[in-house]
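Recall that a protein's primary structure is simply its ordered list of amino acids. Everything else, from secondary elements to tertiary packing, is in principle encoded there. The following example makes that idea concrete.
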Amino acid sequence: MIPAPIRRLSYNPAVRAIVQRLHVGGIARRVYCRLLSSSGTLHVSCLGVTADFKTHNNKQLAFVDCVFTTERSALEATLCKLRPGDVFLDVGCHYGIYSVLASKLVGPEGRVIAVEPHPGALEVLRENVATNGCRNVEVLSVAFSDSTDSLALACGEDCSVYQRPSYALSTLHTVQATAGDA
């Protein structure tokens, strides 16, 4: 496990700029992720609960680590008021970081609704929900919109970086949308 100060330093914009200028970003990420987890699973603790997050590649592992390293205060602020029996809605939940932790905080009498339209992220989300035994999570494979229709979703192959909708058609996914009020 990499110590927290080193993890925070690895996300420092100045350090990242140097790594990119030296053209060693891919090597640095592989080494960092290997030190972080040899199995592709990141074990985390937040607000008194623990969880394991599985990923399929180094980019996904680095993304999950980045959320816990750089957005921890936002994560804790979002989830800190949840109590057993509460309902939590996670729209665009990606790999389920908020959903899994919320599931553990609201307990078996609570409910979590995880909304994720991207098929690749949805696969990782479902694995993380199962890995953590989150039986109170309902996964919806839709995009929330103001209408019910099909939408084009542009996303990187590994689901960790969203791309511009103007990118080549091969990077677009057609997803079902549903009105959020429904």
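Residues 58-70 form the longest helix (13 residues). The first strand starts at residue 41 and ends at 46.
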